[in-house]
Amino acid sequence: MSVEIGYSLSSEETSPKDLVRYAKRAEDAGFTFALISDHFHPWIKRQGHSPFVWSVIGGISEVTKRLSVGTGVTCPILRIHPAIIAQAAATTAMMMPGRFFLGLGTGENLNEHILGKHWPPIQLRQEMLREAVKILRLLWRGGNQSYYGKYYTVENAEIFSRPDQLPPIMIAAAGATSAELAGSIGDGLISTVPEEKIVNKFRASDNGAEKPCYGQMTVCWAETEEQAKKTAREWWPVAAIPGKLMGELATPAEFEAAAQLVDQHAVISQVVCGPDPDKYLEEINSFKKAGFDHVYIHQVGPDQEGFFRFYERTIAPRLH
């Protein structure tokens, strides 16, 4: 099985204009796709950014020609109504014909609490996501549409700017139940863990067998391994925070407090660090063995240009 390699546009660490610039650089470096995170807050204040993703993607559409771009991922259940996401994604797909996909997930309290609404438990969020996807697909049919559901209401809504080719919907999952949901409502899977059981659950549900699977791997390239470890600890301590907490903590300050309690060696164990290309290729292969056909790389920290040169010089030639 061949694997396509992509790049992660980390909104939490990067200014809007730099995200646009990195997308162009990723295309020039040979990456075939990119996913851009959709956050209202960064995980920790040190990361320092969190621009509005749809504005940034508009900029990316103007400077790239081949790069496929997806949201990694958007939560359509609280902060933004699914009808608005339907319009935003349709517009984006018109600006990037055939090369935009919509990544969706059940979100994190970090971004969704801002409107003062109750943060639902995961089972309820999964139900809301299922209904949100139903609304998206309904509005994308065109014509005047109304919907009266358990969680959402849409009245006499019509999306006039619709693309010839609708964007596929990829669903994020880190556990078995979410993977089953992804297979039943989505056109593909997004995950951050190279676990075969997640891919198997996804592919076993409904029509998941032939759908693409995207896996994100987190790395920190630097001239030395020690320097990379230092950067990873400083910029991405959330790598060691348990998954359930990632969805429940509400503010960057809470994530910073939680990061103080985790073993810093645990951070490093979750991030490929240093200049050894074999470690990167090994991690890519672990996703491939788990059944992922797309792997996208998240470079932690500000030295994105150093990572691009490293990828072009040492990783890309060995992949091809």
Entry keywords:
320 residues; alpha/beta; TIM Barrel; 8-stranded parallel beta barrel; two-stranded antiparallel sheet; 45% helix; 16% strand
Structure characterization notes:
This protein is an alpha/beta fold and 320 residues long. The protein has a single domain, classed as Luciferase-like domain (TIM Barrel). Helices cover 45% and strands 16% of the residues. The chain has 13 helices and eleven strands. The strands form two sheets. The protein has an eight-stranded parallel barrel with strand order 1-2-3-4-7-8-9-11, surrounded by six helices. The chain has a two-stranded antiparallel sheet with strand order 5-6. Strand 3 (68-71), helix 3 and strand 4 form a beta-alpha-beta unit. Helix 1 packs parallel to helix 13, helix 3 (82-95) packs across helix 5 and helix 6 (176-185) runs parallel beside helix 7 (196-204). It is globular, with a radius of gyration of 19 Å. The protein starts with a strand and ends with a helix. The model has no long low-confidence stretch (mean pLDDT 97).
